[in-house]
Amino acid sequence: MIQDGFHLYDGDHLNLLAMDKRGEQKDARGTPEESLRHFFSSPAYAVIGVSRSRKKIGCAVFRVMKEHELCVYGVHPSGFEIDGERMLTSVSELDAAVQSVVMAVPPDVTMRVVKECIQHGIENIWLQPGSESDEAIRIATAHGIHVIYGECIILFLEPVRSFHAIHKWINRLAGVYPEW
């Protein structure tokens, strides 16, 4: 698996934005920009792997999505509370409106969660850096799930704050940030 840049995988093709800045390369899902629009068109989202620790990425993604007033559910097997909101314990508990999930779990857990997403009818999965699994990507796309990986979702939640804003600026400067 390629670990640099922003990747959209449809099962047969890996689109690299660094090579396709104008969106001319097409695959079954369209341009990277169209894929981002599809992911963010979900009426509700879930973050799988929300941690009690505010310093961990799962908790950070959950909180930023909440700050952006998105309908987002947190999932962790322990079912604890964060800011008064109970985390669900599995993908099977998600509301049917959830079409897009963000995974912030170790790669050895990713495959199990992908199987749960397949059973639940999830359309889009965003694998946070560190969650990637080649096998999970292949299985998900074989079942028609669109997989995005290689960048942190926080870079795409406008307005982007903190060090993520600097990272986004660098990506734009390098020509690897999609204008959507």
Task: Give a verbal description of the structure.
The protein is globular, with a radius of gyration of 15 Å. By secondary structure, the chain is α/β, with parallel strands linked by helices. It has one domain: Rossmann fold, CATH 3.40.50.720. Mean pLDDT is 78; it is low at 1-29. It is built from 5 helices and 9 strands, in the order E-E-H-E-H-E-E-E-E-H-E-H-E-H. A 7-stranded mixed β-sheet has the order 2-1-9-8-7-3-4, with helices on both faces. It has a two-stranded antiparallel ribbon with strand order 5-6.
Defining key terms:
180 residues; alpha/beta; Rossmann fold; seven-stranded mixed beta sheet; two-stranded antiparallel sheet; 5 helices; 31% helix; disordered N terminus
Give the class-level CATH name.
Alpha Beta
Q: CATH architecture, please?
A: 3-Layer(aba) Sandwich
* Number of domains as seen in the coordinates: 1
Low-confidence spans: 1-29
CATH superfamily: NAD(P)-binding Rossmann-like Domain
| Strand-residue proportion | 15-25%
Structural class: alpha/beta
Tally of helical segments:
5
How are strands sequenced across the largest beta sheet?
2-1-9-8-7-3-4
Mean pLDDT: 78
| Main sheet properties | 7 strands, mixed
H/E order of the elements? EEHEHEEEEHEHEH
CATH topology, which one? Rossmann fold
**Count of strand segments:** 9
Query: Termini distance?
Result: 25 Å
Shape: globular
